[in-house]
């Protein structure tokens, strides 16, 4: 196999970074640091050392180096199909790229159709491609293929927006990255990108129900921040007892440089899921890893009891009226009269405990019963808004529980950088 030198701006092939390859060990090692837990720390160590030009960062899943940073004065990398300098959960960067031209990119590429402005061959580095995008008025994003890429070596694609499907690198001989023309905006340099938009955001809300016949919605996260991921499952079916509202699940995850997510919003009676797409080989998690899974609310059909959920559904078969749906994580209510069926159990979760900065969450009201049917549990309102109620028995908000033979309402997903 051949070897490539890292002379000039960028590593071999003109790229500023490579995944799962380290610099060949020669008389080029400046220093080795252990107990380094982010690539940002490693990059800063390189910037602080006069002789450092390149570094390799080894993450928590790498071996034999783990949570380690090795800084180099020079960098030799073999052809991408060679195994001699391969490593898992590692990344090598040319620090000069980041000093000359701030980059904010991820190892993905977008479908190209009417979003393609220009295809420019003979481009020597990602930094040059980004500069061309920045100077083109309609260009919001670029995709650069390194000089050793097997499909489009040295080609820079200028794009008005990204379009699904957005796919990650699938092999070591893929050398493409997609980046943002302007890295100066958005919450300290943390960005969320999704298909169909020509802008970036630091917070996104998803309400379009997932169509199982199509690919899920893809989101690219770029930056080094904490991302809150929140999902609400679809509301449960309302029978004699009211349906429980969809469960609310959230998690804070650290983003170090870039990450890729798939979003699936559940309709009434379905779960909402955010996961790492299969094929993702970048930092942050293995392909297929589920970040959050918000289950649908339980049906109110079992023994006429209200369904369990984020908020419980009202119990059925009261002497005159079924029970009200619960709200704000509370239990559903029993119907009135003698020997009514009980309401469903709420989760006890208080929305005020969720770390969301750019949206206002509030509990939806539980539904009001009519006749002997229990009402649905209340869901979640975002900035005071939720799906339209179909009747008084439905729980209010995203994931609200159904009543009187109807499924509950759709769920939703929020992504919020802070």
Describe this structure in words.
This protein has 418 residues and is mainly beta. Helix content is 6%, strand content 29%. Strands 15, 16, 17, 18, 19, 20 and 23 form a 7-stranded antiparallel β-sheet that branches. A hairpin with a 7-residue loop joins strand 18 (248-264) and strand 19 (272-275). Residues 1-9 have low confidence and may be disordered.
Provide the fold topology.
Elements (H helix, E strand, L loop, with lengths): L2 E3 L11 E5 L7 E6 L4 H9 L6 E5 L9 E5 L3 E3 L7 E9 H6 L4 E2 L1 E2 L6 E5 L5 H10 L5 E5 L10 E4 L7 E2 L7 E5 L10 E4 L8 E4 L10 E16 L15 E17 L7 E4 L14 E5 L66 E3 L16 E3 L29 E6 L1
Antiparallel strand pairs: 1-6, 2-7, 3-5, 4-5, 4-7, 8-14, 9-13, 10-12, 11-12, 11-14, 15-17, 16-23, 17-18, 17-23, 18-19, 19-20, 21-22
In short:
6% of the residues lie in helices and 29% in strands. It is mainly beta and 418 residues long. The protein starts with a strand and ends with a strand.
DSSP, total strands:
23
Overall 3D shape: elongated
Structural class: mainly beta
Give the C-alpha Rg: 26 Å
Biggest beta sheet summary: 7 strands, antiparallel
| Amino-to-carboxy terminus distance | 45 Å
What count of helical segments does DSSP give?
A: 3
Average pLDDT for all residues? 88
Sketch the topology as an H/E string, one letter per element.
EEEHEEEEHEEEHEEEEEEEEEEEEE
Name the beta content range. Answer: 25-35%
Question: Which bin fits the share of residues in helices?
Answer: under 10%
pLDDT below 50 for ≥5 consecutive residues: which ranges?
A: 1-9
